Amino acid sequence: MTTSNDQAVVFVIDDDPHIREALDSLIRSIRLNVQTFASTDEFLNFKRPDAPGCIVLDVRLPGLNGLDFHCHLKKLNFDLPVIFITGHGDVPMSVRAIKAGAIEFLTKPFRHQDLVDAIFAGIERDQCRRRAIAAVSELQRRFILLTGRERQIMQKVVDGGPNKKIAAELKLSEFTVKVHRSHVMQKMKAKSVVDLVRMADKLQAGGKTA
Q1: Apex 170 CA angle, 168 and 148, nearest 5
Q2: Is the pTM of this model over 0.70?
Q3: 14 inside domain
Q4: Angstrom distances, CA of residue 80 to CA of 11, 28, 40, 138
Q5: Which of 104, 124, 129, 165 is deepest in the core (most CB within 10 A)?
Q6: How far, in Å, CA of 61 to CA of 38, rounded?
Q7: Is residue 181 part of a domain?
Q8: Whether 164 contacts 153, CB under 8 Å
Q9: Can you give 184-195 as a three-state secondary structure string?
Q10: How confident is the model over 106-165, as pLDDT tens digits?
Q11: How does DSSP classify residue 162?
Q12: From CA 67, how far away is CA 133, in angstroms rounded?
C-alpha cells in the first residue's frame, strides 16, 4: 500500500469548467495527480485508484450539495479527506463542514497557498489512515496463524494473568502455558507483553479480537 505523494490523487468536484481547469493546473503544478469531475455522480462512477488522496469539493452543486454529499460519502464508509471550496460561504456552513470532519473550508477567491496547504494536509491524513489499516491487516494475518489454544492464552496474557493462574484456569501445566505463550510471542512478533497488549488493542479496534 503506497504512501508516496508521487502516487497521491486529488479529486476535484466542481460544476464550473473554468474552476476545474484552474484547479487542475494548480494541482499539477505541485506535482500531484488530479482528476476533475463536473458532478458527484461522475465522481461516484469513476474507478478510483488504490492510492492516498483527498477531495476538493464545491459546496454549491446541482442536485445534492457538497455538504450533503460529504455526509453521503461517510455513510458509504468513504474515508478520503474533504476540502470544501465555495463562493457563497457563511459561518454556519463552515462550522457544519468542519464538524463533519472536513480538512478546510475555503471561500472563493482563496489564496492558492491555502488550498495547497490543505491538500497536503489531506493527503497526509489519508496516508496515516492507510498505514493504520495496513498495520491492522498485518496483525490480523499473524493472529490467524495462532491455534485456538494460543488465542486463549494470548487473551489471558493481555488481561495480565501470570502463567500459574492461566495454567489453573485452563487446566494445563505451567510448562505447557509457557510453551504456548512463547509461540504466541513469536507468531505475533511481539517483543514484550506490553507490545502484545498494544497489538491486541489494535486487533480489537479493527474488529478482530483474541
Answers
A1: 155
A2: yes
A3: yes
A4: 10, 19, 14, 22
A5: 104
A6: 9
A7: yes
A8: no
A9: HHHHHCCCCHHH
A10: 998 899 999 999 999 999 999 999 999 999 999 999 999 999 999 999 999 999 999 999
A11: -
A12: 26
